[in-house]
Amino acid sequence: MVGASSSSSSLQANLIVEERNELMIPRETAGHSFRRTAHFLRPSAASVDGSGFPPVIPPMTLDDEKLSHKNLRVEVQFLGWNHPQQNWQTWIEHMHALHHLTWKESGIYEAIMCSKYKIHRNQDLIFSFSEKWCPETNTFVFPWGESTVTLEDVMALGGFSVLGNSNFTPIGEDEKEMKRIQKILVDERKNITKTTLKRASQSAWVVKFMNSGSEIEHQAFLAYWLSRFVFPKFAKDSIGETIIPLAIHLSRGTRIALAPAVLASMFKDLRSLKEALDASRKQSSSGGFHKVKLSSPLQLLQVWIWERFPTLQPRPPNPTQPDDPKMARWNLLQFDVQNISTRINSSADDFLWRPHWGSSLAHKDKAAEWVRTKPDLGQGVMELARCWRVSELVGPDADYIEQYLPHRVAKQFGMDQDVPDFVPRVNSSPQAAWEYYTRPIEDEKLYIPGRLDESSVTTRYIFWWRKLVSGTEKRPVCIDHPPGFEPKNKRPRHDLETETRDKGSGGSEFEVAVSPKSFMEDIANLEKRFIDLERDINLYKEAYSSSDLHEEGDSSSE
Length: 558
Hints:
The protein is an alpha+beta fold. It has helices at about 1-15, 90-105, 110-115, 125-130, 150-160, 175-195, 200-210, 215-230, 245-250, 260-280, 300-310, 340-345, 380-390, 430-435, 460-470, 520-545, 550-555, and strands at about 15-25, 35-40, 75-80, 135, 140, 145, 290-295, 370, 390-395, 400-405, 445-450, 455-460, 500, 510.
């Protein structure tokens, strides 16, 4: 029986979706809770106290001046943010005519098409979001909840596949033809490094192979694309030797899961940039520069921001055709946005949780439904499963591993949000991490949210989040609404905040700053806050009366 229990426990731990009857707060009635059947991404915490795995909360100030990056001593090289070189589109068109079917088979067709577009970098925008990054959870932390770049985003925005072999799949010793092509490409790369450039220059590579008619032109084309747009190394503008086997696999139509490696590189760069920004803010003005080299395609992050934060978008986006990738919407656009931090922190009511809805064949234009996973699981459903479940992401060259925790941002997939539980790491080796990423789906069926379904949050999540955020600052943050929902009171709280005064000035240590012009408005706001407080107390009573803790208390008293 012990073995059966252990097996059952292991099976439960590997499930993706959980259906429960919970006390929820929907968007339509943000102040009132009621019970309904809800759907969550596993794992949820057993209780609010002790089990939930909280993120590290960054400063939630709305003061954009304090968050200015102008005087920070940080020197950043965006080595992975590369624009298409001259004649690149011409080479794509030439190769497309010959190999587009192979690209679709290997899952890179849309990703190659995305490389035609130029995304102008807004460094302040990238810095502002990096300051809100939590490396422990790989999520952005806002006053109104968590969000992150997911595998679905990398798939929908960058065109990279979540299915296929690993990015570190070697060429087998028995693959003589592939070994022969590899040797030719490696030798050509060495020949270029022997020139005055002293490196395998991408420009020289294009001159060598573009429209050459060589038997290895396609492999050379893919090696260039991988080196410049997917896995740029620290030596800028060079062809990486380690990506040559990958290029050969793709040229044969072998599907490679590039999305997890791309996302891992983005997580790693966000951590590095976050650490550099934090260190610069702590040091004196006479300190040295913090130099950071970022090698991931962070243009995906900027497009992610534009897709989800309407107040930060260039307006209007480019008109596109139905078959155009989403990257085309933002080609060549620029936007000098002001008050970035204020806009981010006040985006609870307009953040787009599901901008990609309908991009997957598994749930396009469908109502909510349960889909059986056995005996056959379609590609679309398998893609969703990879995006929805916790896993480990192996980086380029298998030299680092990042944790992926989609259960923390379930609303981005149309699911309901509960308190996220801690997930142990499975990162002892790249192979172990990859096996965890590709583990079989244990769910007999998966719940696919409907196109128009409104996801909600549990009442205990609200209490957990409020406690988490309010405990990090002396000045309270206005969290009087469910994370991700429209604030009940949009007026900033600074009009009634308590300010510390100098005791030597003759006044009391604390005094309330109230503008005479808005005295009656302030009184009305105070009355409204008392009403909101009464509402919160009633919510807490409802949650307590329906919880296991209440039942335990009753039994113990007997």
